[in-house]
Amino acid sequence: MQSLEALARDARALANGDVVPALPLTGAESEVARQLQICNACRYCEGFCAVFPAMTRRLEFPKADIHFLANLCHNCGACLHACQYAPPHEFAVNIPKAMAQVRGQTYVDYAWPPALGTLYQRNGLTLALASAAGLALFLVLAVALHGQGLAALWSTPVGGFYGIFPHNLLVGLFAPVFLFTTLALGLGVRRFWRDVTPATSGAPLSAPATAEATNAVLRLKYLDGGHGDGCHNEDDAYTLARRRCHHLTFYGFVLCFAATSVATLYHYLLGQPAPYDLPSIPKLLGAAGGVSLLLGTAGLWRLNLRRHPEHGDAAQKPMDRGFIALLFLTAASGLALWAARGTAALPLLLCVHLGAVMALFATLPYGKFAHGIFRTAALLRHAVEKRQPNPVGLGAD
C-alpha cells in the first residue's frame, strides 16, 4: 500500500507540474550507480553484508539511495575478493573503493557548518599531529609563564594536576570544544537522516528495528565477511583482526569517556575531586579503556599500513591515520600521566595529554570519527526498511 500511495503522490505531482528534478550525480556517485546495476544483475554477494539486500530493493540509484548504501558499507573487502567482475575485468567492479569515495564525499556534503566541510580533505596525519603538538606547546608555555619558567615543567606540583591547571580552567577549555563537536556531528547526521529517510521507505523507527541496528553496531556484525570468518585486509585470507581491533578501539574509547563522565559525577555530586587511584571506578574505567584503546589503535595502524590498495579510497588514508594516531597518543599519554603521578614529569606529560585530547575532540566532526556516526544512522534506516514490503520483489505492493 505504501508503494501505491507513493506512486499516486508522484502521479499527482507530475500532473500538477510539481515534480522536483532528480539531483545530478557526481562522478563518484555515477560510478557507484553503474557498479550497483551490475551487482543487481549478479547478486552473488547478497549474503555478505547489509548493502546487497538493501540494493536488491532498488531498480535505480538516485543520490539519496547512493549516500545511504555508501554509509551502510563497512569496507570489509569481501565482495571485491569474491567478484567475478572485479579488475582486471572490463566491468571493473570494486564496490569497497567506489563506496569509500562516495562516503568521503558525504562527510563533506553533510558537514556543519558547511564551510568547514573541506577540512575532511585536509585532515591528515601531519595536521593531526601538528594540532596536538601546537596545543601541547601552548599549554607548556602557559605553565612556564605562570610558574617559575621552564623549571615549572619538571617539578612535582602541589595538589596534583589541579595544581597545574585549575579544574574550572580545564572545564572552560574543554566544554566549548565538546559542545561544538556534539552540535556539529548532530546537525550533520540530522541532515543525512532527513535526506535518506524518504529513500528508505519513509517509515519511522520502531523498537525492533532500533534493537537490531544497535546489536549490529555494538557487535560490528558486518565485519565478519557474512560467514563469521572475518573479512579481508592485505590478501585473499579471511581475518577477524580488523573486527577485533575495531572492538578494542571502540570500547576503549567508550570506557575512557565513561571514566571522565563518572569522574565528573564524583567531583560535582560527591565532592571528591581528582586525582583518583585504584580501585576507584573512574580509574578502573580509565585504565581498562586506555589499555584497550592503545592495543586497538596499534592494531588498526598495522592493518592500515598493510591494507590492500584496492580496498578503499587512497585519498582518505591520511585522514584515517591521523585519527588513529590521535587516539593512540591520547591513550599513551593518559597511561603515562597516571604512571608519572607524584613525580616531576607530571606537568610536561599533562600538557602533552591535554594537547592530544583537545586536538582529538577539535577534529572529531571533520575526521574519521564521523564514519561511525553516519554508519549507525544508515544501519538504523536499513533495519527500518527491511521490515517494509519489498517494492520490487515478488508479491510487492
TrEMBL record:
Keywords: Membrane, Transmembrane, Transmembrane helix. It comes from the Bacteria. Coiled coil: none annotated. The chain crosses the membrane at residues 125-145, 165-187, 248-269, 281-301, 322-340, 346-366. The keyword Nucleotide-binding does not apply. NCBIfam families: CitB (TIGR02484), PRK15033.1 (NF011607). This is CitB domain protein. It comes from Acidovorax delafieldii 2AN.
